[in-house]
Amino acid sequence: MSSISPSGADATKHISSLSSLPDFDPRAVPLVGVDEHLPPVTAAAQTPEALRRRFAAPPPWSPEIVRERKFVEREPAHAAVLLPIVLRERPTVLLTERTAHLSTHKGQVAFPGGRSDPGDRDAAATALREAHEEVGLESSWVEVLGSLPTYVTGSSFIVTPVVALVQPDFALQPNPDEVADVFEVPLAFLLDPAHHERHVFEWQGLRREWFAMPYQDGLRQRYIWGATAAMLRNFYRFMLA
Predict the structure, then answer these.
(1) Which of 77, 162, 176, 199 has an alpha carbon within 20 to 30 A of 125's alpha carbon?
(2) How far apart, in whole angstroms, are the C-alpha atoms of residue 68 and residue 208?
(3) Is residue 1 part of a domain?
(4) pLDDT tens digit string along 155-214?
(5) What stretch of H or E contains 183?
(6) What count of other Cβ atoms lies within 10 Å of the Cβ of residue 160?
């Protein structure tokens, strides 16, 4: 899930899969703005109790970003990802870094998740199963709060983000074939648009835009962009509504 396009009039201005371009580096794409003029979600709204209340009675709202330009001609497939909020003293979001040898989106930051199986009763079941398969997260540590609207990738996956609270005493066993690393980013960082960068890339006369949320994790930068950043941006909009 590599890149996004806005859902408004600019939705027609985009290109095929950016990650398929030789030597493409999203970090090198020009920065056109940072949304520091928008308000952050308050700390009071990020407590477990406040999150439960919000999902129990969701406010009226609309996602900001809904789809990417299709770059694979195939039948749409349903998928789900887990947006896991770890209940540290200050809540965090658990994310993965994909291995470098995968055929698509290698090395990118992603949520645990994947394609729905026929035996999955709903999107939450898919997200929990995939999180267990990818990082070894046991469902007994997870409290599902609800789902955000679907996000359609350029590879024709209709992705449901499933938001959940995760108790902090879990033990993980990442699948080395899929996951190079697992890390956490403060929820407050992701819900503050002062960290939401806007980037623009033009190629063969077409224009594509996406969000990025670079997070400095010690000496290492975790570059969150594309579909992962788009779903986090929608989560911000939901929390601010």
Answers:
(1) 176
(2) 10
(3) no
(4) 789 999 999 999 999 999 999 988 999 999 999 999 999 999 999 877 666 677 889 999
(5) strand 179-186
(6) 21
